Amino acid sequence: MTATQISKGNIYYHFKNKEGLFLYLLEEWTRDWAEQFQAKKARFHTVKEQMIALVEHFVMDGFHHPLTKASNEFYATELITSPNQDKIEEMMQMYLRNYEELLEEGMQKGEFKPDDARLLSMILEGMLAGIEFSSNKLAFQEARELYLKAMNVFLYGITGLTEPPAADKPAAN
User: Is-contact 37 89, C-beta < 8 A?
Assistant: First the structure.
């Protein structure tokens, strides 16, 4: 109410409850995040550089954003019981689509080996979301280094191998 100079009654006229207002703010933040990243993306020549820029954007936009802590608490406690699960899933799909498009572009340009971009985008989202939950007590610079290290592990692995050894490959059904 203070930030918008709008009365409580007027806010509730537009939103059924606090969760409705919260979801609206998350949707706006998600949309802004995607637009800002798309604008930044053009500054980088390779998809690998764009992937590093993605985590930089993730940290810079989210680390001090007022909705980060609230959304983490919401996802951890309210998501399963929320009547707005479809709306939340739609927002998550936007992130996954962005990641998948980036990965597909990298595969088409030969920067990444051919693979299932959809599955890789889910792995990337899981990694970033997990880091977001586990880095909330870190200082900004530590969190930034963690995200960058994670992206480097995602892009290059930790073994230095380009393919898993035959013994480590999953068996075909």
Answer: no
